Inverse folding.
């Protein structure tokens, strides 16, 4: 059973449908016990970091996620959900994240040339470096995925498992043991994205 | 680097695709679901659905269809047509749309852009503008191009982006249907004043028109077309291969 965390942030329709399409047993829930019972957890998110972090805190799900991560349960963050895994974000001030992965979420504007558009929106190629993480076992170097974001994860070199080039090398995916995350939207990235979700559901990395 | 996007546009009326689609080996060529699936499997980077229904029953059918498309096809979906209120945004986003395009609704009530952007984020709000030259000035038209609003187009688009529109679809009524290429002059004027993605629409007749578009105007992010894709005059896969051969970055 894969639990998608419902904490009132973003639209979970496509994520649920894409997981159902690959044959996963999905529950979309904001209930702590259901998250504890699930084999794996996906933390989605669209919107502003501060608002999302507050919602997680108010619902008490932040503590549940920390406990489940510490117990070794596979957890994947998507887009803002990935950013929430980090220690902090500098989006409109400074806000604390879950602290499951070392690093800081910073504005893309700080590192890319001024003539490039923000957000970084559209299909961009993934680069894996020397070793390909298990999450990408069905992918080829250079496969494209769909991004929409204005902030990126920094100071997390040891956790980066994929990057995308947009005037700078931006963090596209991260992993720290059983906790991983994608800055892009696998549920909007066609077959490539479905194959990433499939690999996460199968696990074994 | 980010790729240039190719976007087929489907007009939907009472739950069916209209404007005659006559090329595909599909059992049901006017089913939005089978067409969307076909395009998604054949290289489309994104799909735009325009709801051209007028009735409440048609609206309900449209959202049913949208829900079905969004649960089968996993690429970005933009929805337009009949978007007049934040509730309309809510209605289509809940059915799986990723972006919502506004046109006449924003002309009637520009605050719609601001409210929607605040609630759903800039990336969700697309301003779609139908523009035609009148006495040498770019003018915005409303109601599917039937009504001249008298507003100067470039300033209107700049204002929409300032209010939170995260993407611009520029449909040149002067080149639309002529199939002699995109309206490069009009597109250039828009690219100069906005820093959000610009999608070119109106005038594509052949593969070369897209090559010329992206070569001449690097600021344009995507090309949108309907009939040349629907009638099989241009296969998206061939188009993207040709773009790549010309040094333009695309997703193959």
């Amino acid at each position: 059973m894969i639990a998608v965390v419902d904490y009132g942030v973003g639209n979970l329709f496509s994520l649920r449908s894409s997981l159902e399409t690959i044959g996963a047993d999905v529950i979309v829930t904001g209930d702590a016990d259901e998250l504890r019972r699930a084999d794996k957890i996906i933390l989605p998110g669209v919107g502003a970091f501060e608002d999302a972090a507050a919602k997680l805190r108010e619902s008490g799900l932040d503590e549940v996620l920390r406990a489940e991560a510490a117990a070794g349960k596979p957890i994947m963050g998507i887009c803002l959900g990935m950013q929430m895994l980090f220690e902090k974000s500098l989006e409109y001030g400074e806000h604390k994240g879950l602290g499951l992965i070392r690093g800081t979420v910073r504005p893309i504007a700080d590192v890319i040339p001024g003539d490039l558009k923000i957000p970084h929106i559209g299909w961009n190629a993934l680069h894996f470096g020397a070793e390909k993480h298990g999450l990408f076992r069905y992918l080829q170097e250079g496969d494209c995925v769909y991004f929409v974001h204005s902030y990126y994860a920094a100071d997390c070199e040891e956790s980066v498992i994929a990057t995308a080039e947009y005037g700078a090398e931006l963090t596209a995916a991260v992993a720290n043991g059983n906790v991983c995350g994608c800055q892009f939207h696998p549920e909007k990235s066609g077959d490539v994205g479905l194959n990433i979700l499939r690999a996460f559901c199968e696990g074994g990395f | 680097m980010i790729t240039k996007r190719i976007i087929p546009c489907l007009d939907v009326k009472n739950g069916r695709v209209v404007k005659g689609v006559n090329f595909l080996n599909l059992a049901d060529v006017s089913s939005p679901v089978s067409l969307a699936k076909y395009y998604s499997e054949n290289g489309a980077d994104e799909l735009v659905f325009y709801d051209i229904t007028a009735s409440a029953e048609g609206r309900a059918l449209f959202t049913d269809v949208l829900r079905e498309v969004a649960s089968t096809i996993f690429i970005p979906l933009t929805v337009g047509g009949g978007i007049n209120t934040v509730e309309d945004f809510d209605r289509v986003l809940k059915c799986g749309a990723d972006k919502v395009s506004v046109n006449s609704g924003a002309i009637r009530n520009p605050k719609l852009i601001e409210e929607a952007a605040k609630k759903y984020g800039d990336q969700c709000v697309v301003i779609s503008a139908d523009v035609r030259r009148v006495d040498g000035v770019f003018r915005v038209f409303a109601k599917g191009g039937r009504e001249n609003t008298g507003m100067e187009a470039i300033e209107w688009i700049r204002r929409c982006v300032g209010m939170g529109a995260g993407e611009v679809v520029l449909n040149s009524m002067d080149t639309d249907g002529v199939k002699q290429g995109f309206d490069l002059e009009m597109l250039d004027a828009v690219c100069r004043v906005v820093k959000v993605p610009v999608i070119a629409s109106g005038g594509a007749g052949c593969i070369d028109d897209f090559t010329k578009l992206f070569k001449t105007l690097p600021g344009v992010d995507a090309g949108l077309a309907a009939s040349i894709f629907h009638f099989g005059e241009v296969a998206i896969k061939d188009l993207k291969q040709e773009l790549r051969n010309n040094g333009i970055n695309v997703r193959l």
Summary: The domain at 2-91+104-202 of chain A is CATH 3.40.50.880 (Rossmann fold). The first helix of chain A runs from residue 13 to 21. DSSP finds six helices and 13 strands in chain A. The first strand of chain A starts at residue 2 and ends at 5.
